[in-house]
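Hi all, long-time lurker, first post. I run a small reading group and we've been trying to get comfortable going from sequence to structure in the token notation. Rather than ask abstract questions, I figured I'd post a concrete chain and ask someone more experienced to write out its structure so we can walk through it together at our next meeting. Sequence below, copied exactly:
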Amino acid sequence: MISAIAAAPNGGLVVQPDAYTLANRRLIIELAARHRLPAVYAYRHDASEGGLVSYGPDVRDLYRRSASYVDRILKGEKPADLPVQQPLKYELVINLKTAKTLGLTVPLALQVAADEVIE
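-- Answer (accepted) --
Happy to help. Here is the structure in token form:
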């Protein structure tokens, strides 16, 4: 599949977070690099392990916020009565090493907007 995308002009990947892509994320990152495909991932660790860009929820923030739910349940609230929460904080991570390898220039405005820039 990745080789077919690479064969088309101006190709790229948007890697959705699911069980398959999480289980095979290192392979996906490696294949994207081998085929010189820019790819966007959902989690910080994907960019830190060689992906070009990640943009998604701050997982550490989600875990921190879940502690208050545990506290409320331990104090007697019913889990079914607690509201469903959405992520409040999202992170943008850009890997400039990967961008350079792909021959891409990341605009300075995007670098400034990023939560982390890997050089």
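A couple of things your group might point at:
The mean pLDDT is 94.
Residues 58 and 64 are 10 Å apart (CA to CA).
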